[in-house]
């Protein structure tokens, strides 16, 4: 078996005031590979009271911090988990995500388009899109009656002069109880204009934010075994840090899935055509089927009709 001694071990020996004399005699052991029983044939000079049989003392096949054989110095092994640096967001790089289902089965992988799921995060765009959505869905059916619409007589209440009271010409004025409302609201649309490019960019940013947070899951499909609510409840309980769940399917929602989620207030279901920024922000976890992801990508790549 080939053995390669790392530079870290060599630095540890140097730090311990050990000198190997002619380094050329150890190059075969430290810089290359030693095969077979040639480890025992290597000879190292004796320094003080310490005799080095380095290759036999510090060679092992299992290097763990909890190793009880004493074959490798424990101070050279770190028990800490190695964490890779976080990926930079907004580089328009394609993302590879695992695909699973409600049974937590491995269904392979899927590539998410970088121009949809890895765009730079802009809070100002999200704010504009959410404001546009909330204003557009406002009904605007509020209405009040003007002086010509309120019911009442048109007779002058009393004569103009001689009574000592203020002069009035009608009892339907705004100063009387049951009278008109001046400058009150009338039915109108509260919708504001927002360019289609900005709306589309807002959806891309919302999807990219969920993907960057690790809160985007891709399922092969959203098929459930039955319409029982306990199937969805058990699935949500198995998830970590998932308080509200949004399920997005490609086509029409399956009837079993609709019945299983209608009594669960923290789980909502949408078709891919209805996916929007505000719904994504209301839920901390987004679960999309493979078909839904493909339809969203096609929708984002479709040219905007002017």
UniProtKB/TrEMBL annotation:
Annotated Basic residues bias:
156-170
Segments of skewed composition (Polar residues): 141-151
Q: Which UniProt keywords apply?
A: Ribonucleoprotein, Ribosomal protein
This protein's source sits in the domain of life called Eukaryota
GO terms classed as biological process: translation
Q: Name the InterPro entries for this protein.
A: Ribosomal_uL4, Ribosomal_uL4-like, Ribosomal_uL4_dom_sf
Listed under GO cellular component are:
ribonucleoprotein complex; ribosome
Q: Which Pfam families match?
A: Ribosomal_L4
Q: For the region Disordered, what residue ranges are annotated?
A: 141-188
Q: What molecular function terms (GO) are annotated for this protein?
A: structural constituent of ribosome
**Similarity section:** Belongs to the universal ribosomal protein uL4 family.
What is the protein named? Answer: Large ribosomal subunit protein uL4m
């Amino acid at each position: 078996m080939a053995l390669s001694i790392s530079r870290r071990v060599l630095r540890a020996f140097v730090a311990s005031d050990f000198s190997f004399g002619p380094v050329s005699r150890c190059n075969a052991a430290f810089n290359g590979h030693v095969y077979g029983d040639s480890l025992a044939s290597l000879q190292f000079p004796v320094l003080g009271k310490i005799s080095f049989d380095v290759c036999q003392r510090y060679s092992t096949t299992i290097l763990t911090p909890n190793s009880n054989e004493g074959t490798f110095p424990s101070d050279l092994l770190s028990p800490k988990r190695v964490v890779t640096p976080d990926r930079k967001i907004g580089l328009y790089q394609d993302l590879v995500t695992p695909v699973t289902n409600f049974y937590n089965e491995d269904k392979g992988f899927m590539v998410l388009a970088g121009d949809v799921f890895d765009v730079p995060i802009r809070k100002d765009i999200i704010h504009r899109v959410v404001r546009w959505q909330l204003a557009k869905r406002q009904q605007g059916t509020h209405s009040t009656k003007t002086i010509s619409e309120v019911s009442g007589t048109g007779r002058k209440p009393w004569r103009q002069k001689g009574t000592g009271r203020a002069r009035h010409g009608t009892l339907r004025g705004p100063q009387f109880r049951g009278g008109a409302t001046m400058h009150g609201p009338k039915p109108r649309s509260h919708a504001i204009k927002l360019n289609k490019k900005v709306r589309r960019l807002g959806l891309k940013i919302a999807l990219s934010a969920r993907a960057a947070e690790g809160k985007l899951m891709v399922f092969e499909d959203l098929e459930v075994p039955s319409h029982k609510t306990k199937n969805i409840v058990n699935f949500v309980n198995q998830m970590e840090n998932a308080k509200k769940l949004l399920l997005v399917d490609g086509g029409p929602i399956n009837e079993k899935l609709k019945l299983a989620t209608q009594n669960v207030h923290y789980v909502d279901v949408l078709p891919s055509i209805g996916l929007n920024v505000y719904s994504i922000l209301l839920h901390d976890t987004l679960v999309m089927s493979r078909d839904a992801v493909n339809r969203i990508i096609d929708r984002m790549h479709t040219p905007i009709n002017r």
